[in-house]
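User: Second chain of the day. Same drill as before.
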Amino acid sequence: MTTVKVQKNQIIAKQKEKVKKWYIVQEGTVIQCNSYAKIVLGKNAVIGISEGDRYLCDYVATEDSVLAVFNCESAEDLKEAIHGQESMRSILLRAALGQRQMLLRTYAGFTNLVRQFHSFAENEYSQYENLCAQYHLDEQSFTRMDNFKPLEMVHRAENWEIGNSASLTGSYLEEYVHLMQRDDNLCIGAIMEASYQTRRVTQGIIEMVEYLRYNQDILLAESKNDLFNLFFALAIQAQKKNYDVKPLLNEMDRIAEVIKKLGIYSGKLVDMRMEEYRGYHFETEGAAYETPQAQDGEEEEPQEERSEDCLVHILTYADTEQSVIEEMQELVQKYRDLPDMFSTDAQTFAIRKRITQIFYDTYLKAFMHTVKGEKELTPIVEMFLNFGFMDVQMAGEENANILFDLTEHLDVCKSDHVYTIFEWLRSVYDGRNEPSKNEFDMDYPAYLAEMRKTGKITTEQQKHFMSNRELKVKFEIQNMFTSGNRATYGKLSTFCPILGEYDLINSIEKMLVTAQKLDESLHKIRDIDFSAFYREVQFSDPDKGINREMIMKEIMPDIILMPNAGTRSMMWQETAGVRRDTSARFLFPIFTAVDIDDMMVDTVGRYRWEICRKIQGVHWNDIREKSLTAEYCDYLQFYRKNRELSAEAKEKIKSALLRGRNNYREVFVKDYQNWMKYESKGSYRLNKIAREILITYCPFAKPIREELKGNPMYESALHRLDLLNAKTVQRIQGVYDKYQKAGGRITQELTDNLEYYEL
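Assistant: Same format as last time:
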């Protein structure tokens, strides 16, 4: 166990990072936080005890603090930490029970908060409808309430658990701790049981936090599309007719009070909206009020609500010519009226082709207007840029309303490595990312060089175009976006880029591909195939004796969400450029009814193959240069002569090659899927040769290896891997010792490299 000092506001552990160590707070305090949820951890609290394999929360020092650190990735590590250490048993056991109780109290508080939030919003909207009827004034459309439902918890804490923990920590803690710390197994069992329970409770709190974050705009939103504004507008309308506005102002005061008590809104937003409300002069004293009356003919002929033509709105925003607007309206109408939208006849193909041309031309123009700030971005244009929405009748009115509301919550589809297509193109325009390769595997500089060679542009133009941001975006739209959108849709021959109701076979909420879903799917991959995203990169410090040391570095892929409701994912390119230490690019549909985990395994399998090809270069299929692709090609090319394979195994390989059209990569991807889904659980699906190759180049994580060590099918290969890792660790430690003696500092990337061989 080592001791570390951390400064105020220093991040100790970040959400989604792998839990490798536990930290005991010896001095100072640390905040455990996830959005609104915050818990203060004081002396003898343990960071990591309420987590699983990855952190659910951020941990930040609120003052200069001292932490005791020890490795803890499993119950075995915990057993080693407490063995013969009675004080450690007591500290960890009390921390597990105490932190569980704190989180259960927080859980109970959020449960009440969520219940009150939903009930209050429902009641206030009902009151709004009643007051509109009483005042005989028109209701404003507020579609958010159509889909506002109570939270259905997945990770629930039962009332008996809350009561049990409260009684234990309140009345019987000393007796329980005294009993549990008498034996290592009892102590570890109690700690791990509390830890698993606490993790579930934390996940429940996060569910409630996400529910509040997603729905908080119902009461108060920056866009002013909220309940508070509904009452404000109604009060203004009522005052203009000289009606008594006191009942309306009372409701607004109630909403304002609840908004402040909830504590989930930014102070700046609350102050701005309250100042606007308080600054408006309402006549409430000494006035002779009119009696609200129905307008002539109001009851007989309710005024029909008019909706804007979204297609025209989007095309107009993009400065599309009137003739093209009319053509697009006619094309969309024809497409909607087709007896079979999935037909592949010549007429339907021609309609789709022209719609597609106008769609991408419009997208480029609308995108450029937005990023240049030439026009204000409207929710309808946001729906187009992020979801491919253009027409209400194509998408369905209910779906259109949900998408409209979703534009205020697009952050759920974004993270450091997850982008909507609009955000990705913006990153290209801003220079944060370079354009992707085209279908001919040419990046933007290579494309310009080819254009110059063929005489289509001059050398001067080539130099100018290299830094032209608009041309980079155009290249990305015409290549990666156009091809990737069609490919991720899944049905190439019937693809239409306009989002259609016929593809939204489930609710939008369930089909939406969020950053959280993708991150969880990637974590599942890494928990089995831990080395999937690690690459060898060079470390050099000649002044301290290291000229060239290859170290392992994890480089997570960028995931770009295509604006369609699709069924396929794609590994578009294995690196962002020539350098190996750049992110791969995966494409996923932004809506899908397909299991995301299955899509991710398929995509990572293709990535595994292609990154090996890139690293090996011309030797990718040369068996003299051992690699994943070389050994797989050799195995599939000469399987008929392989005496280690049975006749049945050879027949299966023959069938796999036929299904994959003799493409070795496709056979590997199917084997990789079986490796991840079945072989990792000890269920045999592969033959001996394929298993040997995969366990060599795609080894399982340490916990899975430990479970499979007694299995004769894996025993010898896992033993070889352990020996190789131990030998590598010994060599690295020797290099690091020399480096430190020469005055070098062990950086985080060097530490991560050593830990890689212990995963």
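Residues 310-498 form one domain.

User: Great, on to the next one.
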